[in-house]
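A reminder before we start the practical. When you read a complex entry, don't treat the lines as separate problems. The point of joint prediction is that each chain is placed relative to the others, so the output describes one connected object in space. Small molecules and nucleic acid strands, if listed, are placed in the same frame. In the example below there are two entries. Take a minute to note the order of the lines before looking further.
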Amino acid sequence: MNIQSGFNTREHIYPYTFTRHKTQDSAWPPQVLWFTGLSAAGKSTIANGLNSVLIARGLKTAILDGDSLRTGLCRDLGFSEQDRDENVRRVAEVAALMTDAGLTVLVALISPTREARHYARSIIGNDRFVEVFVEVPLAVAEARDPKGLYRRARSVELAGFTGIDSPYEPPVCPELHLRSDQISVAGAVGLIDAWLRRVRAG
Amino acid sequence: MNIQSGFNTREHIYPYTFTRHKTQDSAWPPQVLWFTGLSAAGKSTIANGLNSVLIARGLKTAILDGDSLRTGLCRDLGFSEQDRDENVRRVAEVAALMTDAGLTVLVALISPTREARHYARSIIGNDRFVEVFVEVPLAVAEARDPKGLYRRARSVELAGFTGIDSPYEPPVCPELHLRSDQISVAGAVGLIDAWLRRVRAG
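Here is the predicted structure of the whole assembly.
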């Protein structure tokens, strides 16, 4: 950040008041499904499966995938604790903007710390934030290792890898909790969808 | 940015390949209308007016307003040249994500440099980027001065203010060019809408 001397950077911001339009055109209020969990837990796979179900229902959706965003919006960020928190913050801000615009947003992001996820929840709003904990035993994620990342983290090629030498803090009270080693992708999608229909349909 | 020693921060990014869905459900391809111009040129006002027209047509829209974003996604950024470029980059990335999701996006952002706007165009894609130059003589913007910012910039309370002690580079070849001191808001909205219907309707 670059602050010019004697110049309060926030001081001359006067947000324009835009005309409010009703963006919601279905019984489904726009919301954010926030998938958190270890690398290779199945977050993106389950989000992708759920996305098809939601689109078939007529919802407008967007997927915000941690890995993809790091090649775009968050390309200036690394994997230090501070940069990871900033990564989570930006994704949450974008998800909030998209929800404002009427989209149902699926976020697939390791988001390892409780604090950052809590901050994300506060940005998005508790009533439209659905935390989905995709749990898998570390040994299973390591055995899957579709990208060879765990192997490289173990051989110290990668530093600060979540689950190996960087902690993952499991959610204390997520809206949804799935064990991806004990349920199929279709099963996980079905569970989330059933929960949404029961709890979150307008 | 924080790069850990011996650890290529880009190296372990493997974007997941999500199922592609057709998000476009009208004859109107999702695109970005990028309003650039001096502070008080009328960017947000015209964007807001156009937004109502587009929504009435059944389009899903989102407004990304520079001032509003600086209280959220871009709150860590100041007004140095470098921070302004990063501001433009992030807005462009978010606009691209929203367009991918099927929204028509209206960006109201001073975005003073040609280089940053060109970069925004490259991120969003030339075929879905509409640069709208909202021109106004500096003297008129200063006379309007709805937020008292020009007065404060002249009295050196604000440093680096576009048009006063920080340059604005007019677009060389914008898709649309309006003079907001010679046309009403409704007139400007009508011109843009007519252009869209003629050139950009599917």
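Discuss with your neighbour: Helices of chain B lie at 43-56, 66-69, 81-100, 114-124, 138-144, 149-154, 185-200. What might explain this?
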